[in-house]
Design brief:
Shape: elongated
Order of helices and strands: HHEEEEEEEEEEEEEEHHHHHHH
Largest sheet: 8 strands, mixed
Number of helices: 9
Radius of gyration: 46 Å
Distance between the termini: 172 Å
Length: 392
Amino acid sequence: MRMNISCCVIYLFLAWTTISVNGDRKHGRHKKRHDKERLTGLPRQDVLQILIENSTYNSRISPDYEQDHATVVDVQIYVLSIDTVNEQSMDYSMNIYLRQRWIDPRLQFMNYSRAQWLEIDFKLMSMIWVPDTFFRNEKKGEFHMVTVPNKLMHLYRNGTIYYSMRLSVLLSCHMRLQKYPLDIQKCPIKIASYGYTTENIIYRWIGHKPIDYNEELQLSQYTLLTHDLDNCTKTYKESKYTGSFSCVQANFILARDVGYYIIQVYVPSVLIVILSWVSFWLDVEAIPARITLGVLTVLTMTTQSSGARASLPRVSYIKAIDVWMAACLFFVFASLLEFAYINVLARRRVPYKCLGSPESFENSPGSNGVSRRDRGGGSREHRIIYVALALN
């Protein structure tokens, strides 16, 4: 009897223990599920608070600073406009969107929110690390601040950061003007890191449309043919400091439009040359008109040549426009020299027309009907007078 009571007590105790353990397990699973649902449903403001302010995140350190690999920054440029291309100073200005993308594992929020991305206000951007990107061939640049700083930042679930800003930059472009104005120029834009070497940052062009253009993009004197991509990574060795800095480069191929130069240079110069030929149809005796026309065309051609080269730098090599202007000036000046030469020949032939040959002068009768040859003694004086008249 006692043994039956003891067995019943032990059985009841084991049953109660099993039920309690199962209940605790179910409660634990339910609690974990509830906590997970609570975390994944946090408001976006709380997610940013947890990621940036209430964590050990340091915006002064690059994402992979403690790792053995560099942070890869994908770059894209959206060209809004190409405003000016200046041959005198050899530069060009652009208005662009500079877009960058990289991964910062410290900012993952997959366990906190179901949102696909978070939009970061420009006031919070200073609390997030961004690469120290600069333009290697920049002369002048400015951010657009109207009405607020034109910057955009999106943070994705896996820590990917998309950063875009609007810039106006003046970039240097070394131009080769041997074929001016029938030339094609290649103007680069170089993007690099100023302070981080390739051990920390590596730049590369984004895979899809690394260079994109505004559909309404137009240039005043050029036609944008195409672009090509290049790598401009450079190693600096100055005294004891050595470092290799990542750099990407895009070259814009610009072809000059010749319509302006046909109207302003080629057609006027051709007309001036034709005008100088008008003197060939003027009478040889119209000396003032021919001299005025010749000198006027020479001076006009010189002025036209100076105006065509006014917007060009003082380079030491010969340009195509120089050859054209020199040829036009040669034709105009040659027409003036031709008039001078013909005028000299005409003045030398006047005595022959008026007095005839020396023989006719000697055989001509005098006032008394006797020829000058028969007079004797006067032949030598007559020849001297004839030579003097011919020289005059």
